[in-house]
Amino acid sequence: xxxxxxxATIKSFILTNALSENVMLMLHPSxxxxxxxxxTKRAKALCISGINIIADDNNxxxxxxxxxxxxxxx
Length: 74
Known about the structure:
By secondary structure, the chain is of the alpha+beta class. The protein has helices at residues 7-16, 29-36; strands at 23-27, 45-48, 51-55, 66-70.
């Protein structure tokens, strides 16, 4: 069963995993495109609750999954 990824799913995932600004979330391109489809422009990134959301360009994330990427600051 595929999970629908929408704004509520992302917010719940962020809260459940107690994520902060030191991570980014990566989605399968089809999930990402459905999430930003409401706008007229093609988005390359999205920010929800202070966390950047990007599409996976390397086929590493399966459809319906959310991947957490650590962001390191110098």
